[in-house]
Amino acid sequence: MSQHGVKKNFTPPKPRKPSGLLGGLTFSRLTLTIVIANLIGMTILLLGSLGMTQYRDGLIAAKLEGVRAQAQVIADIMAQVAADDTNCDAIDPLEATCQVNLREDAVNLVFSRVWDSFEGRVRVFKAPEDFTNLKIDNANTLLLEDVVLRKDAFDTTTLPDIEDDSLSFGKVWRNIQHSIIQHWPSGNFQRSAAARTLEKELEEAFAVSPIAKQRGISSVRYNEEGELVASVSVPIRKVQAVYGVVTAEIGGIQGLIDDARSAILPFFALALIATFLSSLLLTAAIAQPIRQLAIAADSVREGIAVAGRVRIPDFSTRKDEIGELSASLRAMTIAIYARIEAIESFAADVSHELKNPLTSIRSAAETLAIAKTPEAQEKLMDVIQKDVARMDRLITDISNASRLDAELARETREFLNVEQLLRDIADMYRATRKDGQAELQLDNPDLWPASNLLGSPSALGQVFRNVIDNAISFSPADSIVRIRMELEKQDDDTRILRVIIEDEGPGIPPENLESIFKRFYTQRPSGTAFGNNSGLGLAISRQIVESHGGRIWAENIAESGGARFQIELPLRL
């Protein structure tokens, strides 16, 4: 095999070696891609679920509404019962506030009642003396009352069973849940809650307008114990005078969020397991077959190098792209092996065909040295010249045949008129016809159909010339070789152009009607010249016709004798 065009530093890729996994599966880049793609979706789901922004905001809004209603009720009661406005007459009635106070005994009396429907922490703050530059540094300086209200119910907590120190699956899972929930970042929400203070809330509550849409100021902040609470501060207002502020807060927000997250985690764990199993399934269904095909393809390459034969795994029963890929690779491999066998057979046939004239030349040359008469020497020289001409013809035809595949692949096809091509070929044969040679005749060319064919003019011209040359070589002297053309419409509306070439020769033995299209077939009837044909013309013709999607065959003419060649080509209109 020629090495032209091959890089000297080319190194074949190393064969893929499978690495073990469950059930014989192998890790690969495609497997990793499948796993990562599945985990990305699961990760997004986990982030969205554990973030629980919508659930958290809805929970906080509900808590704030409940606390707001509770704080407003208490503030209204305080305004009616505990408000002390005896000093308000001394203040300009146009002022926004009066120097008023809350009676502590009345405040205590209010909280001595039983509040069955209230819960949480409630604090009452008195009004500051100066509202002009309101700034509260310590809320405890204004604190009048601090109580914790509970519903009329007992809180019960089930203590866990006494367990040993050994690790169990349940304990490990609970530890994992606790670690994830405790260390899960809350982002801006947590930072804004940490920046919020009770003093800031009180300042805003004292300064709130009496005509505001909502009474009081609400916020989410951390209390003194570091617990996340929903807090609402409502001013105790009577007309426009502010007597103080009622602050109601309730916790348990973080616990509810953590409980909701804890409920989600088991489902996420199950989804993660399902994702892993689905990744394994996809690996077994996609990545593993592709890897097997790749390994088999490498084995084919290595097998070709060592003259072996490797089978591609057959997944053609699968009705998907893997099955199509397997079928394509198997077909490609079969075609490659067929081409290799054809090349090997072609090389063997070439060696055999070249050896015959060489043997004849060598024998004639050896005999020429001992030939005594001029007639014998002339006869031997004639044999040598004919064998040399035969070798030259063989080498030319072999060269054309070996280049045919590459030329057909590179050649640009175009629309051509087969009728005009046959007319030009007939004119050439008439112009070069020798005395006694069979005459080429076109049957009713004016009635031939239109023949717009997509193909290679030079290659199809070679087909027609090869068949015509074969017909002329078998035809008696001064006989006629006829050419006609027909158009046939198939059931699927495909139009087939048929070119028929007939001669008046002895015909073809029935058992050789197919053999004549094989390479180096040179069996000829008695009386015809030997060595004038290489046996490649018809083989080349069939190869060209099949590359155009057509077919060529031979048959005998029963009526008048002779042979008939038919060439069918699909038309492109």
Characterise this structure.
The protein has three domains: 48-150 and 170-263, PAS domain (Beta-Lactamase), CATH 3.30.450; 311-408, Signal transduction histidine kinase, dimerisation/phosphotransfer (DHp) domain (Helix Hairpins, Orthogonal Bundle); 411-573, Histidine kinase-like ATPase, C-terminal domain (Heat Shock Protein 90, 2-Layer Sandwich). Helix 7 runs parallel beside helix 8 (321-368) and helix 8 packs antiparallel against helix 9 (374-410). It has twelve helices and 14 strands. It has helices at 29-51, 53-81, 104-111, 169-182, 188-195, 198-207, 253-305, 321-368, 374-410, 418-431, 457-474, 537-547; strands spanning 83-84, 101-102, 120-126, 143-149, 217-222, 228-238, 241-250, 414-417, 439-442, 452-455, 480-489, 495-502, 551-556, 563-570. The chain is rod-shaped. It is α+β, with helices and mostly antiparallel strands.
